[in-house]
User: What shape does this take?
Amino acid sequence: MSKGKYSVRKFFNDIHLWMGVASGIILFIVCLSGTIYTFRHEVEHALEPEKYEVKKPENSSLLSSNQLIALVEKETSGKVTSISIPADETSSYELSVKSSPEERRGTGYYVNPYTGEILGTQGGAVSDFFLVIMRLHRWLLIEGDAGKIIVGVSTIIFVFLIISGIVIWMPKKWKNWKQGFKIKYNANWKRVNHDLHNTLGFYSAILLLIMALTGLCWSFGWYRDGLSNVIGAKVFGGRGGSAEQVQVPADSTRLPLAALLATANDEFDYEGNYRISIPYNAEEAITIQKSGVGFFASSGSDKIQLNPYNAEIIKIERFADKPFNEKIASSIKPLHTGEIFGLFSKILYFISCLIATSLPVTGIIIWINKLKKKRAAKKKKNKVLVQK
Assistant: This one.
């Protein structure tokens, strides 16, 4: 191939360069906010332990779920619509309370399961900070659809940057493959900066591609629908699913939640966190979800619907039994946030997001260095021509 011919590699290099320059600032903001948001729950628990942590008193036992519900409903003058029960005995319970059936989302109250004391609500300075970070990540704090579109288009560009970056990373000669896997720290700062961009970008490429492709589900409805068609299962299809109907007996007395939990625990015999959804309607089943805990815990949860009057199993969904396409469709959010395999994957995502945040910076520096090099070469060439 002649020296002056426009090659495929040069084409990808130009795409990578100009798309990176065009979207650099937006991608920096989106990646930085995503990095900060990764450990949101851990940071909230660390900065506000009084809401999330409780001391287990000696010679005392947990109050029943029904007792806690009665105490919270009396205190708030509302109705508890869900209760989250953690596996950790030193963690508070979270109860969601609605003031009316029409209220879309209830207020979350953190409660000491040993005393019934309300420790706090979902709001607060730390929660408000992360709410701002989420809005910055999703739509750049721009109200309406404009922010979503800007982030969405920048994310599409990011996908092309990742793909073109992988092509550029591939060495021209097989013997140079090893150079792409390491950073030459003993070289000059320009080479180190190039290696930081090239090598770290390669190592994080797969996770960043997953984040980008799943993140587009929040930006564009057409993309979400298209992905649902490709997968063969509806993305976000499990949100707000209605409970099955049951026949209300003459006495209309519901069983204690402990009895329903016992039935759920017989079906899902492993350590995990529970979330019990309590419907307003007396004719609806009670839904109990259980998810595993641990460093490598899967984000997939098991779900069971029970007749609240006799604990009869009406419907049961085990995540492990779902077809692969349904597992993917129901895991879009944890695939995007890094919660797909517990703390293990969150750490990997945090590192990848941190790398992604650095890529626009190191990329711009590479571009500036190339411009300086071209100007210096042009200046030198003009100087030689003048001397001649």
Notes: The longest strand covers residues 79-85. The mean pLDDT is 92. The radius of gyration is 27 Å.
